[in-house]
Amino acid sequence: MQRLLRCARWDADAVRDDIRAYAVEHLGTDGGVLIVETGFVKKDRASAGVQRQYTGTAGRIENSQVGVLLAYATNRGRTPIDRRLYLPEHSWSADAQRRHAAGIPDEMQFQTKPRPAWEMTAATLDAGVQAPWVTGDEAYGQDPQLRAVVVHGSSRRSCVDVHRAIRVLGVL
36 and 81 in contact (C-beta within 8 Å)? Predict the structure, then answer.
């Protein structure tokens, strides 16, 4: 399976679009979007994005990859509908040789974790997913661009954790 995923020529974004459409069709349109960060503990240093970093999966700093995921959830079930690899700034983004060896495209650059979350959320909503709610933790809730994407032009409810120093205006 790993060889198929790595070597076969396929369009990962087209597969993502098919999975998203399938999820909404089979789980129903009353669902919401969950912004989830997850870590994949690794023993090697060659896998894309691996470095010693905090991962909630292990509950401590480990050698790991971190992914920012979007999941769609209803009372019938839940499934991931989008994904982005977090590429650490100093150990990966600035090391062209390491990036090339891991197969990371040149156009993939460092982004803070909230950036791919709001890009994926905007793309999901733009694709017509009628998510009446979106949720995420403080790492994402503190980002004003993500909060703007979630509430812009809609009656969508959101529940994103924010630091107590952040002033948020909204209606419950």
Answer: no
